[in-house]
Amino acid sequence: MPSDVKIDVRGLNVWLGDNHVLKNIEVGLKPNAVTAVMGPSGCGKTTFIRAINRLNELIEGSRTTGEIYIDGENIYSKETNIYELRRRVGMVFQKINPFPKSIFDNVAFGPRIHGVESEEELQKIVERSLREAALWDEVYDRLKDSALDLSGGQQQRLCIARALAVNPEIILLDEPCSALDPAATAKIEALMRKLAEKYTVIIVTHNMQQAARVSDFTVFLYLGELVEYGSTKSVFENPKSELTEKYITGEFG
After folding, report:
1. From CA 54, how far away is CA 121, in angstroms rounded?
2. Whole-angstrom distance, CA of residue 180 vs CA of residue 60
3. Which of 66, 74, 98, 241 could form a disulfide with 147 if both were Cys (CB 3.0 to 4.6 A apart)?
4. What are the residue ranges spanned by the domains of the chain?
5. Which residues contact 147 (CB under 8 A, 6 or more apart)?
6. 3-class state of residue 166 by DSSP
7. CA-CA distance, 65 to 85, in Å (whole number)?
């Protein structure tokens, strides 16, 4: 596995029931970068990122073949600890889903599950995570308030903080801005760029302008197949595939 690859996907196929959603995907994703996964609705974008922390297995009737290596370790081997994998690979969903608990308890939830009991340690983790999610300055004086009282954009950043609290290496974001207004979207986009300094960030987006703004690399999927992968600049300015060019210029979507 090349040293400049964090996630090495080899011969990945995923079926959801009878639907062959992903077909023989082969791609190597870089560390400490934002990779955008784009393509028309139903092309397999969400299924692709869910394969990286084995969330598809929670769907009845799903089946996966192939291999995904993270730092050289095949996450689909029988020896893989799935709970540890999902700690290493955090997920933020399209539907904003804070727990009906306080802001503090939302962020402390994961560390508590993983055995952190010290209140002092939890305080440190919550502050660090909220700072990394660019939310601390807005909520530091109301950590006991319900997370449901936050705005939509704040709730989504809280969900990012919750993922960061367990020290992941990879952050998966499934259309994290689809329910947000432009101002909240701009904050999340700036946050993604900042997070890539420390984490490997993969974002599913249907918004090509967003992919162009925030990502270093772009994966283009169509009907479950990998059409193109490369630097975002090259994919947008000099696409190798005619299909990519047609999608980017809006001929279909």
Report:
1. 29
2. 31
3. 98
4. 7-95+169-248
5. 98, 99, 100, 101, 102, 103, 106, 155, 158
6. coil
7. 18
Q: For the segment 125-177, what is each residue's pLDDT rounded down to a tens digit?
A: 999 999 999 999 999 999 999 999 999 999 999 999 999 999 999 999 999 99
- What's the pLDDT score for residue 10? 97
Q: Return the closest-CA partner of residue 162 out of 95, 112, 115.
A: 112
**DSSP 3-state of 64:** strand
Segment holding 67, helix H or strand E: strand 62-70
d(CA 88, CA 157): 19
Instruction: Fill in the DSSP letter of residue 148.
Output: G
- Count of alpha carbons within 13 Å of 39, Cβ hemisphere only? 22
CATH class of the structural domain 7-95+169-248: alpha beta
pLDDT-derived band at 1 (thresholds 50, 70, 90) equals low
- Residue 89 pairs in a beta bridge with 170
pLDDT tens sequence across 193-223: 999 999 999 999 988 999 999 999 999 999 9
The CA-atom distances, in angstroms, between 53 and each of 8, 81, 139, 197 are 13, 11, 30, 21
Which pTM was predicted? Answer: 0.94
Residue 190 structure tokens: 């700036």
Nearest Cα to Cα of residue 178 among 90, 91, 95: 95
**Is 235 within 8 Å of 220 (Cβ atoms)?**
yes
